[in-house]
Amino acid sequence: MPKSDLAYILLFLIIFALCPFLFQNGYAHLTLIQMGIAVIFAISYNQLLGKAGLLSLGHAVYFGFGGFFSVHLINSISSSVLYIPAILIPFLGGLAGMIMAVLLGSFTTRKGGIMFAMLSFAIAELVLASSTVFGRYYGGSIDRTLIPPFPFTSLQSDLVIFFIILFWVGIALIAARLFNDSPLGQMIYAAGQNPERASFLGYSDHRLKFQAFIFSGFLAGIAGSLFALAYEFVTPEIISLRQSWIILQMVFIGGIGYFWGPPLGAILLTLLFSNLSAYTELWGLYIGIVFLCVVLFSPEGIAGISHQLFKTLSKNNKSHSKRLAMIKTLAIATAAIGLVGLCELTYSLRFGESKNPLLFLNSELMNGVIFGSFLIGGIIVFMKSRQKVTPSDLH
After folding, report:
1. pLDDT score, position 167
2. pTM of the prediction?
3. What is the 3-state secondary structure (H, E, C) of 322-341?
4. Around Cβ 174, how many Cβ atoms within 10 Å?
5. Which tens digit of pLDDT belongs to each residue from 103-115?
6. Which candidate, 73, 54, 212, 187, places its Cα nearest to that of 139?
7. Alpha-carbon dihedral 250, 255, 261, 263, rounded to 10 degrees
8. What is the largest CA-CA distance in the chain?
9. Burial of 213 from C-beta contacts in 10 A (0-12 / 13-18 / 19+)
10. Does residue 39 contact residue 263 with C-beta atoms inside 8 Å?
């Protein structure tokens, strides 16, 4: 692994480690815990979609089985049947997710494209339906304070749990980078991009994708185990299709295939899920609009946009390009404010209330005119700025 990649990972972990001390309240700590779990889960999903080209609609199954196994393991530890330190439990949860990936991926990875997506969807439905028969094995509650913690510490504090999660975030980032840079990881990426060419070179497309599936299941199991450790209960809800859809959104919005895209998407959407609901009832609508805009206008996600913007500005010193980039950014922000304002205005007219502070005027007509102008003006400026881009601005 290049030293620059290791430096970026260490910088990310240091910034993440400082956050609990900058935001010293219980809600912020819980949000950071959610972020850490989501980052690992997003990294695992990116190994499938971004590297192997496998669109899984039931990836939460491996996340869930890591959590289910950890619940039973922690209860055995609490009963003094086993003695395992808390920091090692996610590794064993990862093995549980990996075993499920071996069992289910052995035949699902023989297919690709839409067939694999449908198979993953069907398996997720079957596993979720089986919880009605094997309910006692699908989760439960635990008492994490009975687990052997680090010396001189107690697992009663969310801060200790956060640093355990941070440790495994670092392990996941380093493992994913080493795996992607290895010859095996390079061939998996090649098979995901062009399976026919990989087969022509003598490599088995199924075996390569199967190995990526196993590694992805291991990381998903770690995330599920950390979920059980953090929240002290696990239910069949964590293997639902909704959970798989959330992680798909995170990876897609962050940037499929980019190493830092999925962590970025996981952090951004966790912030939105945690904070938007406190300000508006329409938070689900806004997240859907963001996802739709990414799919339509920037399939490479936020990481792709940032990469292209940095590449354009670094290769071209023309002030004209920089002005265009700034104008586009301001136009998008203006249009977004206008759209949010109109949505909140419509909601307030329908239900007579809105938590959004954007509606600061008493007149609905004036609010509508202002936000409508923002939306239309932002769209017009953005379209005009796109027309002004010449080939010399992109090279």
Report:
1. 94
2. 0.86
3. HHHHHHHHHHHHHHHHHHHH
4. 16
5. 999 999 888 888 9
6. 73
7. 10
8. 70
9. buried
10. yes
